């Protein structure tokens, strides 16, 4: 149970107004009383609510968007979708970045206990840890909606895309274009989106009796460059590549150009990416384009329905399909504009 100012006041035999002023370090309260209040509040792990005096009708007017990064074009577009709803509702959007650090994610989520935000939209970090901090947030009845990267163990609403089907379609496209040695550039951890994309890739290759080759990348750019360069310069180099996320797809281009590996003749490339300049690369990149704006907008719509008490969040999954945009990185003549 959360500790309140009223409890502190009762236990210390002080007026609620005295405790409130002491916690605000008011000059009206003696140094001795302040010390008593601060010491007891720390003992009880009291988390002050700096927004309490400004809350009207029990709301802060803020929602939180918790993301692993914004460099990825998907998340930038998703924020725009979220903002399109939040602005109309008169809410401020507060963006928090975890930088793929579960401890930072835990710290951010704990801050929400003080009333800073009314609801949370989240795309979780990639890790093998447990998610007690998210369970606690949900248990505290702070509306929580996942999008893209979801925590499947928490029974709340989520907005995702059809990752399995999209990966299957990507692998099938490479097979139809003649690729027989297709590598899947994966990521470590237990992210559901990576797992489902891996499963779709695997199923497509098994359906066509082709060997699987999964290469695990990291969150470090230099390490990824080394991993991908080793893959592309090996004697058994793949003739097709599927990048599970944007950050592992782009280095393939740089390394292919450096080693004079011709795209799409020597190797064909598909990336899960929302990159706006995909069509301007040399050659233009075939992408599985996620509906980032629409996913952000849908997630925000669900959250505000919950905030307006018109909707009970439940274990519901909304799926918005991705699109395979075929360009010259997998086909000698791009059919993008046909």
UniProtKB/TrEMBL annotation:
**Single Gene Ontology MF annotation:** DNA binding
Q: Where is the signal peptide?
A: none
Q: What keywords are annotated for this sequence in UniProt?
A: DNA-binding, Transcription, Transcription regulation
Supply the name of the protein: LacI family DNA-binding transcriptional regulator
User: Start and end of every HTH lacI-type domain?
Assistant: 3-57
Which InterPro entries does the record associate with it? Answer: HTH_LacI, LacI/GalR-like_sensor, Lambda_DNA-bd_dom_sf, Peripla_BP_I
